[in-house]
Amino acid sequence: MKSYLFTTETDRGGVMLCEIDDFDTAVNYLCERFDGVVKIESAEQVWQLPEADKQASAPSITETQPQDSAAGITTADAEGESSADLFG
Predict the structure, then answer these.
(1) First vs last C-alpha separation in the chain
(2) 82 in a domain, yes or no?
């Protein structure tokens, strides 16, 4: 039985204990099994996702407007309206 330590792009990961002895086979399995794997280690072997691939797989950050959960509208929609208009 071998152990493989893996890390994801969100700095999470874990240890997989399995019967896979071949490091390359384990890398393929872990990358298919878990989303965002960027590093795998076993004994003295290390696999790391190339830097260009890390940037391509990083989630994009989009700017969103905060919502007023009571009224169900975005704050951008409420700008310029008085509170009487919202509750009247």
Answers:
(1) 69
(2) no
> pLDDT tens digits for 52-69?
666 655 444 444 444 544
The string of DSSP letters for 14-68 reads EEEEES---HHHHHHHHHHHSTTEEEEEETTEEEE--HHHHHHHSPPP-----EE
Report the domain count for the chain: 1
Among 30, 25, 36, smallest CA distance to 15 is for 30
Question: Quick one: tokens of 66?
Answer: 């905060």
CB 74 within 8 A of CB 67: yes
- Is residue 64 situated within a structural domain? no
Beta bridge partners of 13: 7
